[in-house]
Amino acid sequence: MAGARHPVCVSGAALVQTERLQQTFAFSVCWSDDSDSFVRRSWEDFRRFHKTLKETFPVEAGLLRRSDRVLPKLPADAPWLVLRGRTSRGLACLQLLEAYLRALLVAGERVSRSPVLTGFFAPQPWDLEPMLPPGSQVILPTPQEPPPGLPGSPAIRTLEAQSLRCLQPFSTQDTRGQPFHAQAQEALDVLLRHPSGWWLVANKDQQTAWFPAPYLEEAAPHQGQDGGQPLGISGPQFCAVCAYESSRADELSVPAGARVRVLEASDRGWWLCRFRGCTGLLPAVTLQRDGLGTLLSGPWLHRGADGAEGGEGKAHGSPRSPQTVMLPPPVPARPPLSAIQSRCCTITRKALRQGAP
Fold this sequence. Notes:
By secondary structure, the protein is α+β, with helices and mostly antiparallel strands. Helices cover 20% and strands 25% of the residues. It has helices at 43-56, 79-82, 86-105, 109-112, 115-121, 291-296, 337-341, 346-355, and strands at 7-17, 23-31, 36-41, 137-139, 162-166, 170-173, 179-182, 187-192, 198-202, 208-212, 216-218, 237-240, 259-266, 270-275, 278-283, 287-289, 324-325. Strands 12, 13, 14, 15, 16 and 17 form a 6-stranded antiparallel sheet that branches. It has a 5-stranded antiparallel sheet with strand order 10-9-8-5-11, with no helix packed on it. The longest helix is centred in the N-terminal third of the chain and has 20 residues, at 86-105. The protein is globular and about 70 Å long. 32% of the residues are buried.
């Protein structure tokens, strides 16, 4: 299964900076078997990868005849990048690398399905770690501005809140210091997404509070207005540290690095999971928390961890999982309010100050 698949789509997800000022670029990779994974690569990794591509495909690289070139050029350090700050340069490079990778995927099957390209996107040990290095900062790219309107027309942009639902009960305080309780399956409107993993949400009573993003999930298209959804559709997000091939009808087959939803955890060593729209059992030893994927996953990327667009599903019990318990999602470290306000525009800062106690 792992040898036949190949990447079909790549999206730049985030810029990751460590305490030692090292930068890596996180990408969401969608594979031909409908699975998806997150990988982190450095600029040097891309340099070595591009050199290997030219050595493996001299014709496609235009080394023999320039007119035969189909391989894109690796983005160089442009002069206009030098004038920017370190973070701005990193985000600009993330966009350039995303365009470079997408050009590779359309350079022909001989290149896009080659072991060189597939191996570059294959999850590495650091991609499967449950946590990022201590002190790491995850910086999300700014959404692209919409195309300008006609000359002289007023520049009006509609800010529409997205409605997500809470996976499990969670209690915190709202922006006025009052208790804020969210129940399982309750719909919450996301007003502001912060890279720390704490998002500004509002409930049906118009209470606003900072809420941990791993507790939120996109509602399925068939979900009703009351926020209800059949049991067994969602759960905490985990990552497969190694490939597993099913040997029974009630088991799942997953490639290494695949993101799955754990619906039920058991002390017997077999967990009920959802992957690519199917529900089945996986060995618990092959799964661990998906740190980066939990923070970056969302509707703006390819699809959810179960690989489905939101189809119906049922969670069936098994003799190997008689005693089950739902695992709570991880809660990211909450940044101070000053750090949140420093990344907001003037209008948002004023609104937050008005809502403060």
